[in-house]
Amino acid sequence: MNNAIIELQEVSKIYQNNPLAGVQSVSLSIPEGLVTVISGESGSGKSTLLKLISGLMSPDSGVVLYKNGPVMGPESRLIPGHDAMKTVAQDFNLNIYARVYDNIAGLLSNTNLKEKQQKTFEVMEFLKIDHLAQKRAVDLSGGEQQRVAIARAIITGPEVLLLDEPFSQVDSILKNELRADIKRMSRYLGITAILVSHDPLDGLSLADKMIVLKDGEVLEEGAPSDLYNAPGCLYTAQLLSNCNVLSSEDARELDIYTGKDTVAVYAEWVRLNRNDDSLTFTVKDCFFKGFYEEVLLERNGVKLRAINTGNFRYVKGQEVGVSIDRFVEF
Ligand SMILES: Nc1ncnc2c1ncn2[C@@H]1O[C@H](COP(=O)(O)OP(=O)(O)OP(=O)(O)O)[C@@H](O)[C@H]1O
Predict the structure, then answer these.
(1) How far is residue 320 from each of residues 152, 268, 294, measured CA to CA in Å?
(2) What's the ipTM?
């Protein structure tokens, strides 16, 4: 993994009017030039963490370092926020009645007008919004506004781009495009991107590094594939995979005997077959999902979700042999 550009050491921030909220004793590092996704359920402290990293908020204790120097909080700066970092907030912060071009170019100085125009068009082309240059921001779709907000953030050449729930306003097709844009930006412009999202897919498909946050604390961090395949805690497994969670007692129905409390079985680890040595489950329901089918199974009161990618469909009441390829225990 690349060198750390940002480091947090034992950073805590508790809100005066909400003492149970905020972040507690967070230590982490953000690798330079890569995409880091901070994931966690709503209220886990993701936005708070983003503000602490960028200097828009000061920690109660601990330090935030950017290239080994302290990041100053808003009380120590005329314009809050570290100069090398730009945040795209959830509300985009656009001048909605101004043209797209002016929204972006307005952030550059007027000392060289030709250069200003050239740079603005370069950034608009990079984000595929050059054809919208003369439109007012208010007349754009959510996804287009999002791109303008990102253009505004990168036009001044920040080293770090922070994005707070960047895909919340867009449909799934656009989401994939924007994910690719962010990755492209990081790769081609060398920008370090930090993104917070409650959608696990953002982390899995986009992140070089993923950080899992719960109740203001970092639970674990690592490469998305490592966290997905070998989650260190149940929260991560549930966040990333919507898995089957069974008590140790229920797990015995699946021939899984564990000394731990809980077993997690991802739906794709449930193998549906007709082997004689497999366990017999009854199909309780089937959900059409396009290229696959989600099958809800039951055996002696224990329910299990599985995935059928075969070119046939199960029917309610059908008996099916089940074996478990893998499980994780907590
Ligand atoms: N200014 C504030 N004053 C008091 N409490 C706050 C403030 N801002 C956030 N909180 C609380 O701190 C906790 C963390 O909030 P934060 O916005 O950082 O979480 P989040 O993970 O980004 O949530 P979401 O995904 O819903 O945006 C929440 O319980 C929230 O209610």
Answers:
(1) 55, 16, 14
(2) 0.94
Beta carbons within 8 Å of 210's beta carbon, 6+ residues apart: 36, 37, 38, 39, 203, 204, 221, 222, 223, 224, 227
Res 275: pLDDT = 59
Atom of ligand 1 nearest to the CA of 90: 27
- pTM (two decimals): 0.90
Token digits of residue 124: 């608009």
Output the CATH code of domain 4-236: 3.40.50.300
Where in the chain are the domains?
4-236, 242-329
CATH code of the domain made up of 242-329 = 2.40.50.140
Q: Which residues are near ligand 1 (CB < 6 Å)?
A: 15, 17-18, 21-22, 40, 42-48, 198
Cα 22 to middle of ligand 1, angstroms: 7
Cα–Cα distance between 209 and 204 in angstroms, integer?
A: 9
Instruction: Please give the Cα distance from 118 to 134 (Å, whole number).
Output: 15
